[in-house]
Fold this sequence. Notes:
The complex is a heterodimer of chains A (160) and B (201).
Chain A: E1 9-10, E2 16-19, E3 23-28, E4 32-38, E5 43-49, H1 65-78, E6 86-92, H2 101-121, E7 125-130, E8 136-141, E9 147-152, E10 157-159
Parallel strand pairs in A: 1-3, 6-7
Antiparallel strand pairs in A: 2-5, 3-8, 4-5, 4-6, 8-9, 9-10
Helix pairs in contact in A: 1-2
Chain B: H1 4-29, E1 34-35, E2 39-44, E3 57-66, E4 72-79, H2 80-91, H3 102-127, E5 131-133, E6 137-141, H4 143-153, E7 161-171, E8 176-184, H5 186-200
Antiparallel strand pairs in B: 1-7, 2-7, 3-4, 3-5, 3-6, 4-8, 7-8
Amino acid sequence: MPSPDESLVIIGIGEYHVGNCPMSTIGLGSCIGLVIHDTVRATGGLVHIMLPDSQGRTDRPGKYADSAVELLVRELVQKGCKPTTLIAKIAGGAAMFRTTAGSLNIGERNIEAVKNRLKSRGIPVSAEDVGGNVGRTITYYPCENGKILVKIANGTLKNL
Amino acid sequence: MLNSQQLDALRELGNIGAAHAATTLSTMLMSNIEMEVPEIDVLDIGKVHEHVGDELSAMVLFEINGEVSGGGYVLLHIPKNSVIRLTNAMLGMSEPDRDLTEMDQSALLEIGNIMVSAFLDATATLLNIIMLPSPPSLVIDMPHAAFQSILAMQEFADINEVVLFRTELHSDQHKITSNLFLLPNKPMLDEIVRMLENLMK
Protein backbone atom coordinates (compact mmCIF):
# COMPACT_ATOMS: atom_id res chain seq x y z
CA MET A 1 0.00 0.00 0.00
CA PRO A 2 1.39 3.45 -0.84
CA SER A 3 2.37 5.58 2.13
CA PRO A 4 0.01 8.49 2.73
CA ASP A 5 1.17 11.98 1.96
CA GLU A 6 -0.03 13.94 4.97
CA SER A 7 -0.22 17.35 3.33
CA LEU A 8 -3.80 18.48 2.74
CA VAL A 9 -4.67 19.38 -0.84
CA ILE A 10 -7.32 22.11 -1.19
CA ILE A 11 -9.38 21.74 -4.33
CA GLY A 12 -10.93 24.88 -5.84
CA ILE A 13 -13.96 25.18 -8.10
CA GLY A 14 -13.57 23.01 -11.20
CA GLU A 15 -10.34 21.44 -9.91
CA TYR A 16 -9.59 17.85 -8.85
CA HIS A 17 -6.96 15.68 -7.25
CA VAL A 18 -6.26 11.98 -7.34
CA GLY A 19 -4.03 10.18 -4.84
CA ASN A 20 -3.92 8.99 -1.26
CA CYS A 21 -3.31 12.22 0.67
CA PRO A 22 -6.16 13.98 2.51
CA MET A 23 -8.00 16.42 0.24
CA SER A 24 -10.55 19.12 0.95
CA THR A 25 -13.03 21.46 -0.69
CA ILE A 26 -14.00 24.59 1.21
CA GLY A 27 -17.52 26.01 1.27
CA LEU A 28 -19.57 23.95 -1.14
CA GLY A 29 -22.89 25.68 -1.84
CA SER A 30 -24.73 24.55 -4.95
CA CYS A 31 -21.45 22.92 -6.03
CA ILE A 32 -20.82 19.21 -5.47
CA GLY A 33 -17.81 17.57 -3.92
CA LEU A 34 -17.61 14.17 -5.57
CA VAL A 35 -15.30 11.50 -4.18
CA ILE A 36 -14.63 8.32 -6.08
CA HIS A 37 -12.80 5.92 -3.77
CA ASP A 38 -11.10 2.62 -4.51
CA THR A 39 -12.08 0.31 -1.66
CA VAL A 40 -9.17 -2.04 -2.38
CA ARG A 41 -6.27 0.32 -2.99
CA ALA A 42 -7.03 3.07 -0.39
CA THR A 43 -6.75 5.71 -3.03
CA GLY A 44 -9.22 7.91 -4.82
CA GLY A 45 -10.08 11.32 -6.17
CA LEU A 46 -12.03 14.41 -5.23
CA VAL A 47 -13.48 16.85 -7.75
CA HIS A 48 -15.24 20.18 -7.13
CA ILE A 49 -18.14 20.30 -9.60
CA MET A 50 -19.90 23.59 -10.35
CA LEU A 51 -22.44 22.93 -13.12
CA PRO A 52 -24.45 19.92 -14.33
CA ASP A 53 -23.61 19.72 -18.02
CA SER A 54 -20.42 20.37 -20.01
CA GLN A 55 -22.37 20.52 -23.29
CA GLY A 56 -19.24 19.27 -24.97
CA ARG A 57 -16.80 21.74 -23.38
CA THR A 58 -13.47 20.12 -22.69
CA ASP A 59 -11.30 22.90 -21.22
CA ARG A 60 -12.18 22.19 -17.57
CA PRO A 61 -13.61 18.71 -17.18
CA GLY A 62 -13.73 19.01 -13.38
CA LYS A 63 -16.22 21.86 -13.55
CA TYR A 64 -19.14 19.85 -14.94
CA ALA A 65 -20.89 16.78 -13.50
CA ASP A 66 -20.76 14.65 -16.65
CA SER A 67 -17.11 15.23 -17.55
CA ALA A 68 -15.98 15.22 -13.88
CA VAL A 69 -17.19 11.65 -13.31
CA GLU A 70 -15.42 10.51 -16.49
CA LEU A 71 -12.28 12.40 -15.47
CA LEU A 72 -11.97 10.75 -12.05
CA VAL A 73 -12.74 7.27 -13.39
CA ARG A 74 -10.16 7.68 -16.15
CA GLU A 75 -7.47 8.95 -13.76
CA LEU A 76 -8.12 6.15 -11.27
CA VAL A 77 -8.10 3.45 -13.92
CA GLN A 78 -4.82 4.87 -15.22
CA LYS A 79 -3.42 4.45 -11.72
CA GLY A 80 -4.39 0.80 -11.83
CA CYS A 81 -7.75 0.86 -10.06
CA LYS A 82 -10.40 -1.58 -11.19
CA PRO A 83 -13.75 0.06 -12.03
CA THR A 84 -15.55 -2.67 -10.09
CA THR A 85 -13.96 -1.69 -6.77
CA LEU A 86 -14.88 1.99 -7.04
CA ILE A 87 -17.52 3.62 -4.85
CA ALA A 88 -18.74 7.22 -4.82
CA LYS A 89 -19.61 9.66 -2.06
CA ILE A 90 -21.18 13.04 -2.73
CA ALA A 91 -21.77 16.22 -0.73
CA GLY A 92 -23.16 19.65 -1.60
CA GLY A 93 -25.89 20.67 -4.01
CA ALA A 94 -27.49 23.08 -1.55
CA ALA A 95 -29.75 26.03 -2.30
CA MET A 96 -28.08 28.86 -0.39
CA PHE A 97 -30.53 31.56 -1.40
CA ARG A 98 -34.09 30.46 -0.90
CA THR A 99 -35.59 33.49 -2.61
CA THR A 100 -33.57 33.00 -5.78
CA ALA A 101 -35.16 30.29 -7.85
CA GLY A 102 -32.10 29.72 -10.05
CA SER A 103 -29.81 28.56 -7.27
CA LEU A 104 -32.20 25.87 -6.12
CA ASN A 105 -32.28 24.47 -9.61
CA ILE A 106 -28.52 24.38 -9.96
CA GLY A 107 -27.91 22.48 -6.71
CA GLU A 108 -30.58 19.92 -7.49
CA ARG A 109 -29.57 19.63 -11.11
CA ASN A 110 -25.97 19.06 -10.04
CA ILE A 111 -26.99 16.23 -7.69
CA GLU A 112 -29.12 14.59 -10.37
CA ALA A 113 -26.47 14.92 -13.06
CA VAL A 114 -23.74 13.40 -10.87
CA LYS A 115 -25.96 10.50 -9.83
CA ASN A 116 -27.05 9.80 -13.40
CA ARG A 117 -23.50 9.71 -14.66
CA LEU A 118 -22.34 7.49 -11.79
CA LYS A 119 -25.24 5.12 -12.47
CA SER A 120 -24.38 4.85 -16.15
CA ARG A 121 -20.80 4.08 -15.09
CA GLY A 122 -22.01 1.42 -12.64
CA ILE A 123 -20.43 3.15 -9.62
CA PRO A 124 -22.58 2.87 -6.47
CA VAL A 125 -23.14 5.91 -4.24
CA SER A 126 -22.20 4.59 -0.80
CA ALA A 127 -22.88 7.80 1.15
CA GLU A 128 -24.23 11.27 0.52
CA ASP A 129 -24.96 14.53 2.29
CA VAL A 130 -26.71 16.66 -0.30
CA GLY A 131 -29.38 19.31 -0.76
CA GLY A 132 -30.82 21.48 1.98
CA ASN A 133 -29.66 25.05 2.37
CA VAL A 134 -26.34 24.80 4.17
CA GLY A 135 -22.78 25.21 2.96
CA ARG A 136 -20.38 22.33 3.52
CA THR A 137 -16.63 21.96 3.81
CA ILE A 138 -15.50 18.40 3.22
CA THR A 139 -12.24 16.57 3.81
CA TYR A 140 -11.60 13.18 2.25
CA TYR A 141 -9.15 10.67 3.77
CA PRO A 142 -8.33 7.96 1.22
CA CYS A 143 -6.19 6.05 3.71
CA GLU A 144 -8.89 5.91 6.40
CA ASN A 145 -11.31 3.70 4.45
CA GLY A 146 -12.28 6.66 2.31
CA LYS A 147 -13.76 8.55 5.26
CA ILE A 148 -15.19 11.98 4.56
CA LEU A 149 -15.59 14.61 7.26
CA VAL A 150 -18.37 17.10 6.50
CA LYS A 151 -18.36 20.40 8.37
CA ILE A 152 -21.18 22.92 8.27
CA ALA A 153 -20.95 26.61 9.15
CA ASN A 154 -21.98 26.28 12.81
CA GLY A 155 -19.05 23.89 13.30
CA THR A 156 -21.07 20.64 13.40
CA LEU A 157 -19.10 17.71 11.98
CA LYS A 158 -20.28 14.44 10.57
CA ASN A 159 -18.71 11.40 9.01
CA LEU A 160 -19.69 10.21 5.59
CA MET B 1 -9.57 40.85 -18.63
CA LEU B 2 -9.12 44.46 -17.42
CA ASN B 3 -6.26 46.90 -17.97
CA SER B 4 -4.81 49.05 -15.20
CA GLN B 5 -6.72 52.17 -16.25
CA GLN B 6 -10.00 50.26 -16.15
CA LEU B 7 -9.10 48.84 -12.76
CA ASP B 8 -8.38 52.36 -11.47
CA ALA B 9 -11.73 53.59 -12.74
CA LEU B 10 -13.56 50.68 -11.11
CA ARG B 11 -11.67 51.25 -7.88
CA GLU B 12 -12.75 54.90 -7.88
CA LEU B 13 -16.35 53.88 -8.55
CA GLY B 14 -16.18 51.44 -5.64
CA ASN B 15 -14.59 54.11 -3.48
CA ILE B 16 -17.46 56.51 -4.04
CA GLY B 17 -20.12 53.86 -3.50
CA ALA B 18 -18.49 52.47 -0.37
CA ALA B 19 -17.94 55.94 1.06
CA HIS B 20 -21.69 56.58 0.88
CA ALA B 21 -22.43 53.19 2.42
CA ALA B 22 -19.91 53.95 5.19
CA THR B 23 -21.64 57.24 5.93
CA THR B 24 -24.98 55.49 6.48
CA LEU B 25 -23.35 52.90 8.76
CA SER B 26 -21.61 55.68 10.65
CA THR B 27 -24.94 57.46 11.18
CA MET B 28 -26.63 54.30 12.40
CA LEU B 29 -23.84 53.46 14.83
CA MET B 30 -23.05 57.08 15.72
CA SER B 31 -19.41 56.15 15.37
CA ASN B 32 -16.53 56.65 12.97
CA ILE B 33 -16.28 54.11 10.16
CA GLU B 34 -12.90 53.49 8.58
CA MET B 35 -12.79 52.40 4.96
CA GLU B 36 -10.02 50.54 3.14
CA VAL B 37 -9.12 51.19 -0.49
CA PRO B 38 -11.31 48.91 -2.65
CA GLU B 39 -9.57 45.76 -3.80
CA ILE B 40 -10.21 44.44 -7.26
CA ASP B 41 -8.89 41.00 -8.02
CA VAL B 42 -9.33 39.16 -11.26
CA LEU B 43 -9.29 35.54 -10.12
CA ASP B 44 -9.56 32.13 -11.62
CA ILE B 45 -12.72 30.46 -10.24
CA GLY B 46 -10.49 27.73 -8.79
CA LYS B 47 -8.76 30.34 -6.57
CA VAL B 48 -11.84 32.00 -5.05
CA HIS B 49 -11.38 29.92 -1.89
CA GLU B 50 -8.04 31.66 -1.28
CA HIS B 51 -9.91 34.95 -0.82
CA VAL B 52 -13.26 33.86 0.61
CA GLY B 53 -13.36 31.27 3.39
CA ASP B 54 -15.83 29.13 5.30
CA GLU B 55 -16.04 30.92 8.67
CA LEU B 56 -19.62 31.53 9.84
CA SER B 57 -20.77 34.90 8.51
CA ALA B 58 -23.89 36.80 7.59
CA MET B 59 -24.34 37.79 3.96
CA VAL B 60 -27.05 40.08 2.68
CA LEU B 61 -27.42 39.69 -1.07
CA PHE B 62 -29.07 42.09 -3.51
CA GLU B 63 -29.51 41.65 -7.21
CA ILE B 64 -28.79 44.79 -9.22
CA ASN B 65 -31.76 45.96 -11.28
CA GLY B 66 -32.22 49.06 -13.40
CA GLU B 67 -30.65 50.69 -16.43
CA VAL B 68 -27.71 48.38 -16.81
CA SER B 69 -27.46 45.27 -18.93
CA GLY B 70 -26.31 41.89 -17.73
CA GLY B 71 -26.70 40.79 -14.16
CA GLY B 72 -24.91 41.41 -10.95
CA TYR B 73 -25.10 41.36 -7.21
CA VAL B 74 -24.06 43.49 -4.29
CA LEU B 75 -23.28 41.57 -1.16
CA LEU B 76 -22.72 42.79 2.37
CA HIS B 77 -20.59 40.33 4.31
CA ILE B 78 -20.21 40.52 8.10
CA PRO B 79 -18.48 37.82 10.18
CA LYS B 80 -20.60 36.36 12.99
CA ASN B 81 -18.86 38.09 15.90
CA SER B 82 -19.12 41.44 14.15
CA VAL B 83 -22.84 40.86 13.55
CA ILE B 84 -23.36 40.40 17.28
CA ARG B 85 -21.35 43.52 18.11
CA LEU B 86 -23.24 45.44 15.43
CA THR B 87 -26.68 44.48 16.76
CA ASN B 88 -25.51 45.11 20.30
CA ALA B 89 -24.23 48.57 19.36
CA MET B 90 -27.44 49.45 17.52
CA LEU B 91 -29.72 48.27 20.32
CA GLY B 92 -27.51 49.29 23.23
CA MET B 93 -26.99 45.72 24.42
CA SER B 94 -23.88 44.11 25.83
CA GLU B 95 -23.86 40.37 25.45
CA PRO B 96 -20.84 39.44 23.34
CA ASP B 97 -21.11 35.62 23.50
CA ARG B 98 -24.41 34.51 22.10
CA ASP B 99 -25.90 32.85 19.06
CA LEU B 100 -27.39 34.87 16.23
CA THR B 101 -31.10 35.51 16.71
CA GLU B 102 -34.03 36.93 14.78
CA MET B 103 -33.05 40.28 16.17
CA ASP B 104 -29.71 40.04 14.39
CA GLN B 105 -31.43 39.00 11.20
CA SER B 106 -33.74 42.03 11.30
CA ALA B 107 -30.80 44.30 12.01
CA LEU B 108 -28.82 42.78 9.11
CA LEU B 109 -31.66 43.23 6.62
CA GLU B 110 -32.16 46.81 7.76
CA ILE B 111 -28.46 47.69 7.64
CA GLY B 112 -28.00 45.82 4.38
CA ASN B 113 -30.89 47.71 2.76
CA ILE B 114 -29.63 51.09 3.84
CA MET B 115 -25.95 50.50 3.04
CA VAL B 116 -26.51 48.82 -0.30
CA SER B 117 -29.06 51.40 -1.43
CA ALA B 118 -26.51 54.10 -0.62
CA PHE B 119 -23.78 52.18 -2.45
CA LEU B 120 -25.89 51.68 -5.58
CA ASP B 121 -27.31 55.22 -5.52
CA ALA B 122 -23.85 56.74 -5.44
CA THR B 123 -22.40 54.52 -8.17
CA ALA B 124 -25.48 54.97 -10.37
CA THR B 125 -25.39 58.74 -9.96
CA LEU B 126 -21.77 58.79 -11.07
CA LEU B 127 -22.62 56.66 -14.09
CA ASN B 128 -25.72 58.77 -14.69
CA ILE B 129 -28.07 55.80 -14.74
CA ILE B 130 -30.60 54.26 -12.36
CA MET B 131 -29.63 51.15 -10.41
CA LEU B 132 -31.94 49.64 -7.82
CA PRO B 133 -31.39 46.78 -5.41
CA SER B 134 -33.80 43.82 -5.40
CA PRO B 135 -35.32 42.80 -2.06
CA PRO B 136 -32.54 41.27 0.04
CA SER B 137 -31.75 37.62 0.63
CA LEU B 138 -30.10 36.87 3.95
CA VAL B 139 -27.79 33.91 4.37
CA ILE B 140 -25.93 33.04 7.55
CA ASP B 141 -23.43 30.45 6.46
CA MET B 142 -20.04 29.95 4.78
CA PRO B 143 -19.00 32.86 2.51
CA HIS B 144 -17.47 30.56 -0.11
CA ALA B 145 -20.70 28.56 -0.33
CA ALA B 146 -22.63 31.77 -1.03
CA PHE B 147 -20.10 33.09 -3.57
CA GLN B 148 -19.87 29.79 -5.35
CA SER B 149 -23.69 29.63 -5.61
CA ILE B 150 -23.79 33.15 -7.05
CA LEU B 151 -21.17 32.22 -9.65
CA ALA B 152 -23.16 29.13 -10.60
CA MET B 153 -26.25 31.32 -11.09
CA GLN B 154 -24.39 33.81 -13.27
CA GLU B 155 -23.99 31.69 -16.37
CA PHE B 156 -20.37 31.00 -15.66
CA ALA B 157 -20.30 28.01 -18.00
CA ASP B 158 -17.92 29.68 -20.42
CA ILE B 159 -16.15 31.93 -17.95
CA ASN B 160 -13.34 30.84 -15.71
CA GLU B 161 -12.41 34.24 -14.32
CA VAL B 162 -14.27 36.27 -11.77
CA VAL B 163 -13.82 39.88 -10.72
CA LEU B 164 -13.78 40.10 -6.95
CA PHE B 165 -14.52 43.66 -6.00
CA ARG B 166 -14.27 44.20 -2.26
CA THR B 167 -14.24 47.17 0.12
CA GLU B 168 -13.67 46.70 3.81
CA LEU B 169 -15.50 48.96 6.27
CA HIS B 170 -14.78 48.76 9.96
CA SER B 171 -15.55 50.46 13.22
CA ASP B 172 -12.56 50.41 15.57
CA GLN B 173 -14.74 51.66 18.41
CA HIS B 174 -17.17 48.74 18.20
CA LYS B 175 -14.68 46.23 16.68
CA ILE B 176 -16.99 45.60 13.74
CA THR B 177 -15.68 44.46 10.36
CA SER B 178 -17.74 44.28 7.20
CA ASN B 179 -17.10 43.86 3.49
CA LEU B 180 -19.07 45.14 0.55
CA PHE B 181 -18.71 42.99 -2.55
CA LEU B 182 -19.80 43.88 -6.05
CA LEU B 183 -20.21 40.82 -8.26
CA PRO B 184 -21.12 41.83 -11.80
CA ASN B 185 -21.32 39.21 -14.52
CA LYS B 186 -19.27 39.79 -17.66
CA PRO B 187 -21.91 41.79 -19.63
CA MET B 188 -22.57 44.08 -16.65
CA LEU B 189 -18.88 44.55 -15.95
CA ASP B 190 -18.21 45.37 -19.60
CA GLU B 191 -20.99 47.94 -19.62
CA ILE B 192 -19.86 49.61 -16.39
CA VAL B 193 -16.30 49.79 -17.73
CA ARG B 194 -17.59 51.30 -20.98
CA MET B 195 -19.61 53.94 -19.07
CA LEU B 196 -16.57 54.81 -16.96
CA GLU B 197 -14.40 55.17 -20.06
CA ASN B 198 -16.98 57.51 -21.62
CA LEU B 199 -16.94 59.62 -18.46
CA MET B 200 -13.18 60.01 -18.69
CA LYS B 201 -13.16 61.14 -22.32
